[in-house]
Design goal:
single chain; about 375 residues; TIM Barrel; Arc Repressor Mutant, subunit A; 3-stranded antiparallel sheet; 15 strands; binds S-adenosylmethionine; binds iron/sulfur cluster
Amino acid sequence: MTATSLYVHVPFCVVKCGYCDFNSYVVVDEELHDRFLAALSAELGRRWRGGRPTTVFIGGGTPSLLSPARLERLLAIVGEHVDLAGCAEVTMEANPESLTVDKARIARAGGVNRLSIGVQTFHAHLLRFLDRAHDAAKAEAAFVAAREAGFDNISLDLMFGIPGESFDEWRRDLERALQLGSDHLSCYNLTFEPGTRFERDRRQGRTGPNDQGLDRAMFEHTRSRLAEAGFEAYEVSNFAGRGGRCRHNDHYWLQGDYVGVGPGASSHRDGVRVTNLKPLDAWCDAALSGPTCTASAETLRPLQRVAEALWLGIRRADGVEIEAVSRRLRIDARAALEPIFVRQQREGSIVWDGARVRLTGEGLLFADQVGGDYLAAAIDG
Ligand SMILES: C[S@@+](CC[C@H](N)C(=O)[O-])C[C@H]1O[C@@H](n2cnc3c(N)ncnc32)[C@H](O)[C@@H]1O
Ligand code: SF4
């Protein structure tokens, strides 16, 4: 089997944050957690074809929200189907309000060797604005709990560009994350996603993005401050400290194969993308009773695969080596996309040296648009 990663989606949250469009549900009836675990076991049994995954990522939603006994069961289910002990990186996402030393120990014993904790900010008024269920003290306690349980690779998720946030507030968030001793940082510029409360509020004039100049200043400060602190900016929003890069995400940006299980999860193997049923109930029913919980399957056209290779890969600091993409996908990527590279280079967003494309400092600020140009070309082509 070629290198394949595994993604496990745990779709539960304590609250639904106003900015988040991930497939997650606030459920009061914990029996649904058990039903989810049974369905997950059934789906993994059918979908994982054996062999050791390159990496595993247990994300969400909020995996740490499960009770200790259910968290243990979740990891036992994954461990029944895949060889976690031999897997180089097994990440689990956790939220400060639910990560305890006890749960962190269960995760560690169950094979997780990397934790990603969603802190977002340490400022009380901004946490409230984001609908987060924790405060700064809980975020720090969760980090300490993870260390106490033996985790030596802890990443923190932070967000900047929160409406009303000042430059100094972001600067202090970054300092606090560094003081804690995070081994990796993800620093996301808040986006207004379709279908979220934030986006509705924006349309109705109740909130809106900050001034673009302020976002830019925060982004540039992030890069220079983290470079000074010894972090490698290996992707637009991701910075590797002592813990190194997130191999799972890097595999994804390199267009590696992956299997995704859980509601709404997608899988990609050799240019075929399969997406699971999104609603929790429908996915559970299908996983428990039917042969498949798939909602759609799509065989990507060669030009689509090339465009996606660029869309994903351009986010990496290393950029994309065009001949390598051509060889791997057996299509002339240069011929397909060179006119776009030339235009983007003229506009100042990328450097194209005839072998490799890479974002410029300016392009980093508009990575989504730069990548979007490649996808648009595949639709037109
Ligand atoms: C979907 S969450 C899952 C992990 C966990 N539940 C949490 O809240 O941290 C993963 C990360 O995505 C980021 N995120 C989600 N929605 C975002 C948005 N609209 N803009 C920027 N970052 C976002 C947050 O930083 C969050 O930590
Ligand atoms: S950001 Fe995390 S906690 Fe908030 S709704 Fe999304 S997945 Fe849940």
